[in-house]
Q: What sequence folds into this?
């Protein structure tokens, strides 16, 4: 292609001609972006797209991802009418089998989720599953889930159809054009260099699939994904398949609407195997327990080295690694004993450390990533393109996408070895049941607090978040707990009576908590106060020494950040936010930095340890250790002071996430262990107990304290999320999202976050369960747990305003059983807030 064919500039350049890049181009065109260029190093689909198995399943573990999958199906249904390229969408339905009671419980839970999305998923018997997929054996099968709107399609034809739509919308597509560099200047992307010339651009999107990490390195960005060897086989026509398909009558139906001339897709996660029809043959694949990276050097300490000519190619067949899946497939579909294999496909698929997509803007302004599809990119491609196009065009996504946001990964993922360890675990456990509070083990321990050794000496049960080792509970406290309170079913899997013991000790006496993993940010400079006021919905630039609880909002009025802000000086503020949200909140603020400067943002998380001391005797423990007056007049609630505790210099914040008198004590990290020991020794006469994060969670539920990303998200306003008391619509200068919030207040909330208490205290909601009011599903649980002080099972859920009044009868479906309850006035514990101000 001559150089003249390449434009000198474009509004947006998309690098990568797989299904992700094509879908993004298509959706940008739908938004009116007609100055878009897509560059592909070889031919469209020649990376990972062409060898995809093409299955499309919709029900996923998060609200946003399921909505994206549902959008994909809606798009795939109509694409054949928009383009000369028919993507071959076959809405044959999908079956997911359960061969254990644990897996059956998982299906019951998924059936509950489906109700909240309006997906027509139903639970069926093994015999009914066999009627739908006659080739299967029912041996060991306890039941199945059937979703008639799932299906499969041709990945290459889908890409061509999307590219065709993009071209009609003005997008220019150049194949055989390799990007050789990405220009970054003053923190923003400026364009790309190719082997056929340069293109200036406002936005560059890395949609490079398995090449995405390599492409991102040109911009100085680390994208933590690795192409993994992923295999499936294609059989020659089978008489059994042909016989079944010839009997299917597309003009008649059963209760399951299966007679459409196609077999449904079939997944047996207990055997690690999936199937779909391929003409009169079958496609069969799965997830091996012995995974292999496709191109990572030996020792995994280096970066991927994908051959530059690896286009439209496959990896060598690895029958030894595929043997377990092959043998398992024969158990479920006996005809697999007699197959003739047309081809064993071994293609590299890009996986991420948590099996979620990598989407969004990076630390380089204007440089976006649209990659990391983890072998379900075909299912999500339609939705991915939609949300990414909105993100680019509007500056923020239309859904809560934090769990897919490229910014969620910490600095530890710069290590290829750490990245590979996490991805290996994710890949090899792809089909495993994920019980609540399951802890991954790869790459641990990595980030530890100064008190870590003490925790281990005292039988800490550790969890991990953002690479940090954090105490869930101390098993040494279990004897003081009540085993009879163990929740039923899944909620009791990763549980200990120590949680209740630590909860009660905090409420009745005093407890210590190591919160060193909390993300800590400092905002400073002559324009810092004005900057924060322009982002926060509450007034935060108050007097030095005061603390404010606030949110930052997006332009839609949705809650983008939720944290406390302490004014440390005239030009200096400290923000404390959740362990997993530091990157998100820092980058949200960085995106809004004033062009003229005057504001600096520093992540100081690792500089200081944080120890929480809470309970009615907290002042009694702390007072003898400090000359500071800890009384209410000298040190009121929601204030900060610089003090000493023992011999340790401390910044003390009188705040709480458990609803009790107490302080968060911040000190330089090297003093952390000394501070902990001083408090521990001083607390002995007062019955002090060391506690973990699970006790904190149970106490915050009783107090109605929100969790960002679950109870409140970018999709809800503060009024809907129950934090409207923070909003100061009349503050001078306004703030981001104010106009949308004012309109939302006038219109009234679409839904309201409600506290629910359940009749059965041992039936615990885990999140996403449907909530029924008057026999109709009206909402979905956000978070839940047990309140050891109130003695109730507690759940939070969004309900329509007319169903949100205290006393309203509700039902929550927990593993297929509807549990009665009611909307309760909140908070359940200490409603006047007297204990925190004691």
A:
């Amino acid at each position: 292609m001559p150089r003249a064919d390449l434009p000198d500039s474009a509004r947006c350049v998309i690098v990568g001609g797989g299904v992700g890049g094509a879908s993004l181009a298509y959706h940008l065109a739908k938004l009116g972006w007609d100055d878009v260029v897509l560059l592909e190093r070889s031919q469209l689909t020649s990376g990972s797209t062409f060898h995809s198995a093409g299955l499309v399943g919709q029900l996923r573990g998060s609200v946003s991802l399921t909505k994206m999958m549902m959008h994909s199906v809606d798009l795939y249904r109509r694409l054949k009418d928009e383009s000369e390229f028919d993507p071959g969408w076959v809405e044959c339905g999908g079956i997911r089998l359960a061969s254990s009671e644990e897996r059956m419980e998982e299906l019951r839970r998924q059936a509950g989720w489906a109700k909240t999305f309006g997906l027509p998923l139903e639970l069926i018997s093994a015999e009914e599953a066999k009627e739908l997929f006659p080739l299967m054996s029912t041996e060991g099968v306890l039941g199945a889930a059937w979703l008639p709107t799932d299906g499969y399609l041709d990945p290459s034809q889908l890409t061509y159809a999307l590219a065709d739509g993009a071209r009609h919308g003005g997008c220019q597509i150049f194949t055989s054009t390799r990007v050789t560099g990405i220009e970054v200047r003053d923190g923003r992307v400026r364009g790309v260099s190719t082997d056929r010339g340069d293109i200036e651009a406002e936005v560059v999107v890395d949609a490079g699939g398995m090449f995405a990490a390599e492409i991102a390195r040109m911009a100085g960005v680390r994208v933590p994904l690795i192409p993994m060897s992923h295999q499936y086989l294609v059989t020659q026509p089978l008489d059994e398949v042909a016989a079944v398909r010839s009997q299917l009558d597309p003009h008649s139906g059963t209760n399951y609407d299966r007679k459409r001339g196609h077999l449904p897709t079939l997944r047996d996660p207990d055997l690690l195997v999936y199937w779909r029809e391929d003409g009169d043959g079958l496609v069969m694949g799965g997830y091996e327990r012995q995974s292999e990276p496709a191109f990572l050097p030996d020792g995994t300490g280096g970066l991927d080295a994908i051959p530059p000519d690896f286009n439209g190619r496959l990896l060598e067949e690895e029958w030894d690694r595929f043997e377990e899946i092959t043998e398992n497939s024969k158990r479920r579909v006996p005809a697999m004993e007699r197959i003739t294999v047309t081809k064993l496909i071994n293609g590299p698929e890009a996986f991420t450390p948590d099996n979620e997509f990598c989407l969004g803007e990076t630390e380089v302004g204007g440089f976006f990533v649209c990659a990391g599809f983890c072998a379900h990119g075909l299912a999500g491609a339609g939705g991915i393109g939609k949300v990414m196009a909105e993100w680019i065009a509007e500056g923020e996504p239309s859904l809560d996408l934090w769990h897919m946001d490229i910014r969620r990964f910490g600095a530890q993922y710069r290590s290829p070895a750490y990245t590979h360890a996490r991805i290996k675990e994710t890949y090899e456990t792809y089909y495993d049941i994920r019980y609540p509070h399951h802890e991954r083990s790869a790459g641990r321990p990595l980030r530890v607090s100064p008190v870590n050794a003490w925790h281990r000496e005292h039988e800490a049960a550790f969890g991990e978040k953002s690479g940090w080792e954090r105490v869930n509970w101390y098993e040494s406290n279990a004897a003081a707990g009540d085993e009879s309170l163990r929740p039923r079913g899944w909620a009791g899997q990763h549980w200990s009576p120590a949680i209740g013991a630590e909860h009660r000790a905090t409420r009745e006496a005093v407890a210590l908590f190591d919160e060193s993993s909390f993300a800590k940010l400092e905002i400073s400079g002559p324009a810092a106060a004005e900057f924060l006021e322009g982002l926060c919905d509450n007034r935060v630039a108050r007097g030095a020494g005061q603390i404010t609880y606030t949110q930052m909002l997006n332009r839609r009025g949705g809650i983008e950040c939720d944290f406390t802000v302490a004014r440390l000086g005239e030009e200096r503020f400290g923000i404390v936010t959740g362990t997993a949200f530091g990157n998100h909140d820092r980058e949200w603020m960085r995106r809004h930095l004033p062009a003229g400067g005057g504001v600096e943002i520093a992540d100081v998380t690792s500089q200081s340890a944080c120890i929480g001391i809470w309970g009615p005797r907290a002042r009694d423990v702390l007072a003898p250790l400090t000359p500071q007056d800890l009384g209410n007049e000298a040190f009121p609630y929601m204030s900060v002071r610089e003090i000493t505790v023992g011999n340790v210099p401390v910044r003390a914040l009188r705040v709480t996430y458990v609803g009790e008198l107490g302080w968060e004590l911040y000190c330089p990290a090297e003093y952390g262990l000394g501070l902990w020991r001083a408090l521990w020794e001083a607390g002995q006469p007062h019955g002090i107990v060391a506690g973990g994060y699970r006790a904190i969670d149970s106490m915050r539920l009783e107090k109605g304290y929100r969790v960002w990303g679950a109870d409140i998200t970018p999709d809800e306003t503060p009024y809907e999320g129950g934090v409207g008391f923070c909003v100061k619509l009349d503050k001078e200068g306004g703030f981001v999202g104010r106009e949308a919030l004012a309109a939302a207040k006038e219109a009234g909330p679409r839904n309201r976050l409600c506290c629910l208490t359940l009749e059965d205290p041992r039936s615990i909601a885990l999140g996403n369960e449907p909530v029924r009011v008057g026999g109709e599903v009206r909402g979905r649980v956000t978070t839940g747990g047990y309140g050891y002080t109130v003695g109730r099972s507690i759940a939070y859920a969004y309900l329509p305003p007319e169903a949100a009044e205290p006393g309203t009868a509700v039902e929550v479906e927990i593993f297929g059983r509807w549990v009665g309850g009611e909307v309760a006035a909140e908070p359940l514990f200490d409603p006047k807030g007297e204990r925190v101000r004691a």
About this structure: The longest strand covers residues 776-787.
